[in-house]
Every structure is written in C-alpha cells, then in structure tokens.
Amino acid sequence: MKKEFDVLVIGAGPGGYTAAIRAAQLGGKVAIIEKQDLGGTCLNKGCIPTKALIASVHTLHCLKKAEEFGIIAKNVKIDFSAIMTRKERIVKRLRTGIKNLLKSYHIEVIKGQAYFVSPSTIKIEDKTLDIKKCIIATGSVISEMLGIKIDGQNIITSNDVIELEQIPSSLLIVGGGVIGLEFACIFQGLGSKVTIAEALSSILSSEDREISKALKSILAKRGMDIKTKTTVKEINLKDGKVEVVLNSGENIEKILVEKVVITIGRKPQINNLGLENAGIFCEDGRIVVNNKMETNIKGIYAIGDVIGGPFLAHKASAEGIVAAENALGRQTLIDYRAIPRCIFTIPEIASVGISEEEARKKGYKVAIGKFPFMVNGKAITTGDTTGFVKVVVDRETNAILGIHILGLQATELITQASLAIRLGCTINELNRIIYPHPTLSEAIWEAAQDVYQKAIDLPKFKGS
C-alpha cells in the first residue's frame, strides 16, 4: 500500500527538521527525506562542531590567565584528540536528540536522495511518493575555487578541518569571511601559525567597517598574519608542505605552510533534485520564493540556504515555520526586519540591522553611539574588556537602524538588540529600559545613551 503524507520535507537541517515538526504540530502527517545525517551541515559540519572547538580554545585562554584570578594552573597541556572526541560526542548527542524529536511527533524519516519526477511526484531511491505539499530544505554546499584542487590532505575545506587528527604547525586560510575567521581563531588559539588571504579590501566585508577593522587589529596583535586585497595565484606541494604564491596586486609572495584551508563561502544546493522536472524557477543559482516561502509551483515551498543568503541556521528555522504553517492552511508571512548575525571568533562579533556605511548609503542622517567594554564593570571582573557596542540611529526619527557588538558574549547579547529593532523601539525608548547591574548588557544601554552624549560612564563630551 502506497504511503501518503500531507507534507514532504527534503532535508533535515535546522530549517528542514523545524518545518517538519511545525507541520506535525499542526496535525499534518509528515515525512522528512535526508540523504546524510540528521541535523544537516550546521550540526554535523558547521555551527556545532566549530562552537565545540571554540569552547575548548576559550577554556584554554581562561587557564592561561588563571593567575590573574588567584588560581594557579601550571603545566596546562592540549590533548587535541580529546578535544575532537568531545566535539564528536556533542554532535552525536544533538543528532540523537533530533531523531527522538522527530520520533515523538511520528515524523517518518526516509533515507536517500530526493528527486522530482514531476510537480506532483518525488522519487527516493526505489520509492515513489505523491506530493500534496513539499518543503525543499536542501541547504548549501561548499563553493569551489577555480584552479585549486582539493586533495583532502594538504589542501582542505571546512569539512576536512573538523576531522583533523593533529594541530597543524601552520596554515593558510583562503577567505576572510565568517568561516575562515572562526577557524583562524580556533587554530591560532591551539598554537598554529595562521595566515589569512582575503581578496577584498577588508575581512568580514558584510559587517560594520569599524567592527571588522577592530577585529583585524586584535587578531594581528596576537600574531595572525591577515593579508587583504590578496589572491592565491598558485599552489604547489613541496617537501610534504604546501607552497602558496600570493598576489597582492603590488607584490608576489611565496609562503610555505602545512595546510591550506579553502573557505571562500557556500552556495545553494539545487543540483540533482530534478527541479526542472517540477518546473521550479531558479535564478542566480537559488530557488526563488515569495514571502510565504512558496515557489512558483503551488504547494511547493523552499527555505534556508537553498533560497540564498544570508546562510544562517536561525533564518532557515524561521522560514521553515512560515513554510509549514502555509502548507497546512495558515496565512503566515516571513519577516526579515531583525535577523541577528553571529560570528564566533575570539572575541565574538554579533550584529542586527544595518551598518553605519549602509545607513549613510541609504540616505539616513546617522547618529552613532558607542561604549567600550573596558569601562563596563562586569567585563572588568571577568578580565576580558576587549571590544565595544555600537548603535546606529536615524537622527530624524530616532529609529534604531543597527546594533553591532564586538566582545565577550556578543552572540548572547545581540538577542535584546534584535528584539528592540523587531518591535520598532526608538533610541529614546531603549534609553528608558532599566538594565541590571553589573552586566555586560549595560554596554548596550550606555551605547544608546552615547548617541546624544549622555552615557553615564563616559567622560563629559567636550562640546556639551
């Protein structure tokens, strides 16, 4: 007897499994199709493994400065094998958690590659299923670098890095974006000599320029060699190492490293799905959807990386909920006004809304408020005062356009900033919120006060 489902979800990453659960919560009979492991790239190759490694590096940093806190911790050693074992244990635990969640909602997991035979039929290996409603959540794949052959040993990708068995003595990271910088911080923290080659004029080019410049300065002071406006001209194996020829436009430079890590980004996974058989419209390598997450084919939805950037797990999950609700007869629209962006470098970066540069480009009359963690009481007690909070405001309406944070626990602090922007909070309203003391979050309030030079814990502005 042929099985029938109200909703078929293709892909069990953060967007896919969230969509499947919401559809089941609404009473739908749901199946989720996954050719690899539950959790997708985020859980198995990206967000979670890297954060587990970052946590180990952060612990190492704490131990190295323990004497500042009156704690003697001598002969601290790195057991890289144990670090990687812990990372894998965390991934397996969360993967099992997703499996149990899906089971609790009676969601059937079908292993295999989904392929559209027509707008109404999907084939998975030797199974054929009729489509009532379908949500495509196939995620993204690593972007290839023209002329560079990945060998998985000396020249590797982000997927290979999280499977390393030893700490490289040196590595060149090609790409100064989020992925490259997180790995740079991990391996510099573990003792590797790290060089970054970024083709653009700045690292983290999509972030506020002041924030990215500050991070570059911090990492450079730690000994990281960050080369902007620099491309890879040639890569050769030489005596068991990798010789890389770099071109900065002005100079040609050769460097010798143990590993080269290619982290130039990701692209939507639209291949081998038979989208053309279903008549699903794609543009610029991504599936096109409306604000209900529906494609041009009625009843077929797409969410997450497969519809294009920003490539964020929480964006995919939000889209998954919208798609599932619409698939089950609700009328729900996606709201992109306040998507937080989190970068787990050391120190962390988090932002929501637009940057100062974007605001000026859009024609806003911009007011800026800033507050450094070096004068925040809680930051001083933790011994980590690096960074600052920056608030971007429309001077004419006092609307908060963006909040940007560089520093300890920035990725946790950003949620309140997201809430403020999502609810249309003005700078005056934010200034009237009572923040607890002593907390890192007070820095947001102080930065908001500084928009009009009223920050309590900054010296009097000379012009006031």
UniProtKB/TrEMBL annotation:
Cofactor comment text: Binds 1 FAD per subunit.
Disulfide bonding pattern of the chain: 42-47
Subcellular location(s) of the protein: Cytoplasm
EC top class, as a word: oxidoreductase
Presence of keyword Flavoprotein: yes
EC number(s) on file: 1.8.1.4
Pyridine nucleotide-disulphide oxidoreductase dimerisation domain ranges (all copies): 339-448
Tree of life domain: Bacteria
Major localization class: cytoplasm
Alphabetical UniProt keywords: Cytoplasm, Disulfide bond, FAD, Flavoprotein, NAD, Nucleotide-binding, Oxidoreductase, Redox-active center
GO terms under cellular component: cytoplasm
Cofactors named for this entry: FAD
Catalytic activity: N(6)-[(R)-dihydrolipoyl]-L-lysyl-[protein] + NAD(+) = N(6)-[(R)-lipoyl]-L-lysyl-[protein] + NADH + H(+)
Binding site for FAD: 51, 138-140
Residues that bind NAD(+): 175-182, 198, 265, 305
All copies of domain FAD/NAD(P)-binding, residue ranges: 5-320
Something else known: The active site is a redox-active disulfide bond.
Annotated family: Belongs to the class-I pyridine nucleotide-disulfide oxidoreductase family.
Protein name: Dihydrolipoyl dehydrogenase
Organism ancestry: Bacteria, Pseudomonadati, Thermodesulfobacteriota, Candidatus Desulfofervidia, Candidatus Desulfofervidales
